[in-house]
Amino acid sequence: MRAHALIFLGAPGAGKGTQAREVAKCYGIPQISTGDMLRDAVQRQTALGLAAKARMESGKLVPDDVVDGIVEERINRPDCKSGFILDGFPRTISQAQFVDRILAAKGEGRPLVLDIEVTEELLLKRLTGRRTCSVCGEIYNVHFNPPKVEGTCDKDGGKLFQRADDNEATIRQRLEAYHRQTSPLIEYYRGQGVLLALDGDRDPEAIAKGLLDYLSKA
Question: Is residue 204 within 8 Å of 122, Cβ to Cβ?
Fold first, then answer.
Protein backbone atom coordinates (compact mmCIF):
# COMPACT_ATOMS: atom_id res chain seq x y z
CA MET A 1 0.00 0.00 0.00
CA ARG A 2 1.27 3.47 -0.77
CA ALA A 3 -0.50 4.93 2.25
CA HIS A 4 1.40 4.23 5.47
CA ALA A 5 -1.69 4.93 7.59
CA LEU A 6 -5.30 3.94 7.14
CA ILE A 7 -8.04 5.81 8.99
CA PHE A 8 -11.50 4.29 9.41
CA LEU A 9 -14.47 6.61 9.88
CA GLY A 10 -18.05 5.54 10.47
CA ALA A 11 -20.98 6.13 12.77
CA PRO A 12 -21.65 3.85 15.75
CA GLY A 13 -22.82 0.52 14.33
CA ALA A 14 -21.28 1.14 10.89
CA GLY A 15 -18.91 -1.81 11.27
CA LYS A 16 -15.64 0.09 11.01
CA GLY A 17 -14.04 -2.07 13.71
CA THR A 18 -14.98 -5.26 11.84
CA GLN A 19 -13.50 -3.99 8.57
CA ALA A 20 -10.41 -2.60 10.25
CA ARG A 21 -9.71 -6.02 11.80
CA GLU A 22 -9.99 -7.69 8.39
CA VAL A 23 -7.52 -5.27 6.81
CA ALA A 24 -5.15 -5.52 9.79
CA LYS A 25 -5.15 -9.31 9.52
CA CYS A 26 -4.62 -9.27 5.75
CA TYR A 27 -1.70 -6.82 5.80
CA GLY A 28 -0.19 -7.77 9.16
CA ILE A 29 -0.40 -4.25 10.56
CA PRO A 30 -1.84 -3.16 13.93
CA GLN A 31 -5.36 -1.84 14.34
CA ILE A 32 -5.30 0.75 17.10
CA SER A 33 -8.21 2.65 18.57
CA THR A 34 -8.35 5.61 20.92
CA GLY A 35 -9.80 3.39 23.65
CA ASP A 36 -7.07 0.79 23.22
CA MET A 37 -4.36 3.43 23.33
CA LEU A 38 -5.76 5.11 26.43
CA ARG A 39 -6.17 1.82 28.30
CA ASP A 40 -2.66 0.71 27.33
CA ALA A 41 -1.09 4.01 28.42
CA VAL A 42 -2.96 3.90 31.74
CA GLN A 43 -1.94 0.27 32.34
CA ARG A 44 1.71 1.01 31.61
CA GLN A 45 1.48 4.10 33.85
CA THR A 46 3.19 6.41 31.40
CA ALA A 47 3.12 10.12 32.19
CA LEU A 48 0.46 10.67 29.52
CA GLY A 49 -1.46 7.63 30.73
CA LEU A 50 -1.55 8.93 34.29
CA ALA A 51 -2.71 12.33 33.03
CA ALA A 52 -5.50 10.64 31.03
CA LYS A 53 -6.48 8.46 34.01
CA ALA A 54 -6.86 11.48 36.26
CA ARG A 55 -9.17 13.17 33.74
CA MET A 56 -11.26 10.04 33.13
CA GLU A 57 -11.68 9.28 36.83
CA SER A 58 -12.96 12.81 37.41
CA GLY A 59 -15.48 12.39 34.60
CA LYS A 60 -13.77 14.92 32.33
CA LEU A 61 -12.85 14.57 28.65
CA VAL A 62 -9.23 13.78 27.95
CA PRO A 63 -7.80 16.91 26.26
CA ASP A 64 -6.37 16.82 22.74
CA ASP A 65 -2.77 17.32 23.82
CA VAL A 66 -2.89 14.22 26.05
CA VAL A 67 -4.65 12.06 23.43
CA ASP A 68 -2.32 13.33 20.70
CA GLY A 69 0.71 12.43 22.79
CA ILE A 70 -0.60 8.93 23.45
CA VAL A 71 -1.31 8.42 19.73
CA GLU A 72 2.17 9.63 18.77
CA GLU A 73 3.80 7.34 21.32
CA ARG A 74 1.77 4.36 20.07
CA ILE A 75 2.47 4.79 16.36
CA ASN A 76 6.19 5.26 17.01
CA ARG A 77 6.42 1.66 18.24
CA PRO A 78 8.17 -0.93 16.02
CA ASP A 79 4.97 -2.79 15.09
CA CYS A 80 3.74 0.32 13.23
CA LYS A 81 6.84 0.56 11.06
CA SER A 82 5.13 -1.10 8.08
CA GLY A 83 1.86 0.76 8.54
CA PHE A 84 -1.05 1.00 10.93
CA ILE A 85 -4.80 1.53 11.13
CA LEU A 86 -6.43 4.24 13.24
CA ASP A 87 -9.95 3.35 14.41
CA GLY A 88 -11.81 6.15 16.19
CA PHE A 89 -9.06 8.74 15.77
CA PRO A 90 -8.92 11.48 14.60
CA ARG A 91 -12.30 12.92 15.59
CA THR A 92 -11.60 16.60 14.94
CA ILE A 93 -9.81 18.73 12.35
CA SER A 94 -7.05 19.58 14.83
CA GLN A 95 -6.45 15.88 15.50
CA ALA A 96 -6.40 15.19 11.75
CA GLN A 97 -3.82 17.92 11.25
CA PHE A 98 -1.77 16.42 14.08
CA VAL A 99 -1.73 13.02 12.31
CA ASP A 100 -0.73 14.77 9.07
CA ARG A 101 2.23 16.42 10.81
CA ILE A 102 3.43 13.12 12.29
CA LEU A 103 3.26 11.35 8.93
CA ALA A 104 4.98 14.25 7.17
CA ALA A 105 7.78 14.20 9.74
CA LYS A 106 8.24 10.49 9.03
CA GLY A 107 8.21 11.13 5.29
CA GLU A 108 5.17 8.89 4.92
CA GLY A 109 2.78 11.21 3.10
CA ARG A 110 -0.96 11.44 3.62
CA PRO A 111 -3.21 8.71 5.06
CA LEU A 112 -5.94 6.87 3.18
CA VAL A 113 -9.30 7.53 4.84
CA LEU A 114 -12.13 5.00 4.57
CA ASP A 115 -15.60 6.26 5.44
CA ILE A 116 -18.20 3.52 5.96
CA GLU A 117 -21.58 5.05 5.14
CA VAL A 118 -24.72 3.35 6.51
CA THR A 119 -28.32 4.57 6.37
CA GLU A 120 -29.75 5.69 9.70
CA GLU A 121 -32.56 3.12 9.53
CA LEU A 122 -30.06 0.26 9.30
CA LEU A 123 -27.86 1.71 12.04
CA LEU A 124 -30.88 1.83 14.35
CA LYS A 125 -31.70 -1.82 13.62
CA ARG A 126 -28.12 -2.87 14.23
CA LEU A 127 -27.84 -1.04 17.55
CA THR A 128 -31.30 -1.39 19.04
CA GLY A 129 -31.38 -5.07 18.05
CA ARG A 130 -28.07 -5.89 19.71
CA ARG A 131 -28.16 -8.40 22.59
CA THR A 132 -25.18 -9.66 24.61
CA CYS A 133 -24.75 -12.88 26.57
CA SER A 134 -24.28 -12.22 30.29
CA VAL A 135 -21.96 -15.24 30.57
CA CYS A 136 -19.66 -15.41 27.53
CA GLY A 137 -20.21 -12.00 25.93
CA GLU A 138 -21.42 -13.42 22.59
CA ILE A 139 -23.31 -10.77 20.62
CA TYR A 140 -26.58 -11.39 18.76
CA ASN A 141 -29.01 -9.21 16.87
CA VAL A 142 -32.74 -9.82 17.00
CA HIS A 143 -33.09 -8.65 13.39
CA PHE A 144 -30.07 -10.17 11.66
CA ASN A 145 -28.57 -12.84 13.93
CA PRO A 146 -31.17 -13.94 16.49
CA PRO A 147 -30.53 -16.71 19.04
CA LYS A 148 -32.32 -20.03 18.55
CA VAL A 149 -34.26 -19.40 21.77
CA GLU A 150 -35.33 -15.83 22.43
CA GLY A 151 -33.32 -14.23 25.23
CA THR A 152 -30.95 -17.19 25.59
CA CYS A 153 -27.38 -17.67 24.34
CA ASP A 154 -26.93 -20.57 21.91
CA LYS A 155 -23.49 -21.40 23.34
CA ASP A 156 -24.00 -21.60 27.09
CA GLY A 157 -27.63 -20.78 27.83
CA GLY A 158 -26.70 -17.47 29.39
CA LYS A 159 -29.29 -14.73 29.63
CA LEU A 160 -29.10 -12.10 26.89
CA PHE A 161 -29.30 -8.43 27.83
CA GLN A 162 -29.56 -5.11 26.01
CA ARG A 163 -27.07 -2.38 26.84
CA ALA A 164 -28.66 0.59 28.56
CA ASP A 165 -27.50 2.98 25.83
CA ASP A 166 -28.83 0.79 22.99
CA ASN A 167 -32.24 2.45 23.00
CA GLU A 168 -33.52 4.48 20.06
CA ALA A 169 -33.56 7.88 21.77
CA THR A 170 -29.96 7.58 22.97
CA ILE A 171 -28.77 6.16 19.67
CA ARG A 172 -30.31 9.03 17.71
CA GLN A 173 -28.46 11.47 19.98
CA ARG A 174 -25.20 9.58 19.44
CA LEU A 175 -25.69 9.59 15.67
CA GLU A 176 -26.51 13.29 15.63
CA ALA A 177 -23.39 14.05 17.67
CA TYR A 178 -21.26 11.88 15.40
CA HIS A 179 -22.46 13.54 12.20
CA ARG A 180 -22.08 17.00 13.69
CA GLN A 181 -18.55 16.25 14.84
CA THR A 182 -17.36 14.23 11.86
CA SER A 183 -18.88 16.13 8.93
CA PRO A 184 -16.07 18.74 8.87
CA LEU A 185 -13.52 15.91 9.09
CA ILE A 186 -14.99 14.16 6.06
CA GLU A 187 -14.87 17.40 4.08
CA TYR A 188 -11.28 17.95 5.21
CA TYR A 189 -10.15 14.60 3.84
CA ARG A 190 -12.32 14.84 0.74
CA GLY A 191 -10.61 18.13 -0.04
CA GLN A 192 -7.24 16.38 0.16
CA GLY A 193 -8.41 13.69 -2.25
CA VAL A 194 -7.70 10.86 0.21
CA LEU A 195 -11.27 9.87 1.17
CA LEU A 196 -12.90 6.64 -0.04
CA ALA A 197 -16.62 6.24 0.74
CA LEU A 198 -17.80 2.66 1.25
CA ASP A 199 -21.40 1.42 1.06
CA GLY A 200 -21.86 0.07 4.58
CA ASP A 201 -25.42 -1.17 3.93
CA ARG A 202 -24.01 -4.32 2.33
CA ASP A 203 -23.10 -7.54 4.11
CA PRO A 204 -19.79 -7.26 6.02
CA GLU A 205 -18.26 -9.99 3.83
CA ALA A 206 -19.09 -8.05 0.65
CA ILE A 207 -17.66 -4.84 2.11
CA ALA A 208 -14.45 -6.60 3.16
CA LYS A 209 -13.98 -8.20 -0.27
CA GLY A 210 -14.48 -4.91 -2.10
CA LEU A 211 -12.22 -3.07 0.33
CA LEU A 212 -9.39 -5.59 0.11
CA ASP A 213 -9.66 -5.65 -3.68
CA TYR A 214 -9.36 -1.86 -3.72
CA LEU A 215 -6.39 -1.81 -1.36
CA SER A 216 -4.55 -4.44 -3.39
CA LYS A 217 -4.68 -2.07 -6.37
CA ALA A 218 -4.22 1.23 -4.53
Answer: no
